[in-house]
Amino acid sequence: MGRRSSQRRNAAMLDSDDTDSVSSSSTTRSDMMLSGLEEVQFDKETVLDQCVDALYEKRGSTREKALASIIEAFNSNIQHEFVEKKFATLLQLCLSSIRRGSSKEIALASHVIGLLSLTAGPGDKAHEILEESVKPISVALKSRSDNSKISSLLECLAIITFVGGKDPEETEESMQLMWQVINPKLGPNVATAKPSPAMITAVVSSWSFLLTTMDGWTLNPKNWQGSISYFSNLLDKEDRSVRIAAGETLALVFEVGSLEKFSGESKGSGDSSTDETNKSRELLHIQGLRAKVLNQVRTLSAEAGGKGSAKKDLNNQRNTFRDILEFLEDGYSPETSAKIGGLLLSTSTWANLIQLNFLKHFLGGGFVKHMQENEFLHDVFGFTPKKNLPASQHRVSGTDKRMYKSPNSILNKARTQFLNKQRMLSQDKNVGYYAGGDEL
Predict the structure, then answer these.
(1) How many of the other CB atoms lie within 10 Å of CB of 93?
(2) Cα–Cα nearest to 234, from 284, 292, 188, 184
(3) H or E stretch including 14?
(4) Quick check: helix, strand or coil at residue 343?
(5) Are 132 and 95 in contact (CB under 8 A)?
(6) Where is the composition biased (Low complexity) (predicted)?
């Protein structure tokens, strides 16, 4: 087990398209200030204040430099004091950039808002960030002219909902906004241009990241009917990143359960059949979908390299789909680990693996710093960094290592608990209309 954490989504966060060239006398001063950031050692809070001031400037390139500096500051240190004092101001300036900026500025501002939410952590500030940002992000998503801009907007929406969402309805609202980017028929005012592979990958990854926070029983079935079939169709696409994102999402859907909410085709309510007949038909439909997905996953787990196929990408796909196949056939999720300050951050479910990969991708070089000092992320992953441990626990003895790998380890217990839960859910479903012994 524990072969590796899937690495995906290679889309760049930024592009170089900037058409805003308006100048002013004060802009020159801001440019000089920002260019000097690399040479002069300012007080950290002063630098951030100067960057915020620069976001008022007319020249787009000046605002872009300021946003890039803010991202660097939030990645290198957890800016709790700055967020406490200036989060509302910074949020409104970033939303202004999303409304009026170039693709590059929109991407940078989106990333800052995500970092702002992660730094604030759950609570009133994060919820305000979500409430204030949903509409501007929704409007910006309807103009799908640039993949990097759309990817950054989607990641921002995912992060601020993950941190600031207070109830399932808010999370599903964000998931629907994402869904409409690749399924415009669900949104009457959404552009109908065919989404690119990079856009599809970004949507699927962001959508599945939010699904990790949802209880299958609370999902509104009207929102996600036919989604298993949609993801299954993505497994046949040429783009490997699309296939991997769709495969991991399908694994998560099966892990979440409540498959009837993802499987139906919304055929209407005019059927006069009895509930028993409808349930039997639904079960057969789910079994058929599962069998189709299983065959697709088995094929992709053993795919031979084609002409021009990059060996690293091919191996990544094979490993990912071998993990998915093992999960679908035997119920074992991949166990992965990452070393943070000498301690292991481990995952043993698809939900945690998807969360880990998404946050690593979003935070980039700031991931280790945030995992060491961001209490919200400690709670998400159940991770306690070294500085918060008693001195006696800073070193892991050989005995502890053997215990960690034993059948009674935390990871193995978590996996056993999950499998037991799946069996109980299956047994509950069997009562009334499920055939004995069918576990989906």
Answers:
(1) 22
(2) 292
(3) none
(4) strand
(5) yes
(6) 21-30
Q: Which amino acid is at 147?
A: N
Q: What single DSSP character describes residue 316?
A: H
Which pLDDT tens digit goes with each residue over 90-105? 999 999 999 999 999 9
Please give the C-alpha separations between residue 270 and each of 260, 267, 392, in angstroms, as whole numbers: 18, 8, 67
Q: What is the mean pLDDT of residues 292-306?
A: 86
**Backbone φ, ψ for residue 347 (5° rounding):** -130, 150
Long-range pairs for 362-367 at CB < 8 Å and ≥24 separation? 362/111, 362/114, 362/155, 362/159, 363/75, 363/118, 364/75, 365/75, 366/74, 366/75, 366/76, 366/115
Q: What tokens does 367 get? A: 């991931």
Q: What domains can be seen in the chain, in order of their start residue?
A: 13-184+343-395 (1.25.10), 215-266+275-334 (no CATH)
Please identify which residue in the block is written with the tokens 């031979």: 304
Q: Quick check: 205 and 9 in contact, CB under 8 A?
A: yes
pLDDT at 399 over 90: no
Backbone dihedral region of 266: left (phi > 0), alpha (psi from -120 to 50 degrees) or beta? left
C-beta of residue 224 within 8 angstroms of C-beta of residue 261: yes
How many C-beta atoms surround the C-beta of residue 342 within 10 A? 10
CA distance 323 to 312: 17
Q: Which of 122-136, 292-306, 420-434 has the highest mean pLDDT?
A: 122-136
Tell me the two tokens of residue 306.
């084609």
Residue 418, pLDDT score? 52
Long-range contacts of 415-424 (CB under 8 A, 24+ apart): 415/332, 415/333, 415/335, 415/348, 418/255, 418/331, 418/333, 418/348, 418/349, 419/331, 422/257, 422/331
Band the pLDDT of 45: cuts 50, 70, 90: low
Looking at residue 189, what DSSP letter applies? Answer: T
DSSP 33: H
Tokens 């990333």 found at: 111
**Residue 70 contacts by C-beta under 8 Å, 6 or more apart in sequence?**
48, 51, 52, 90, 112, 115
To the nearest 10°, the Cα dihedral for 390, 394, 399, 400?
Answer: 70
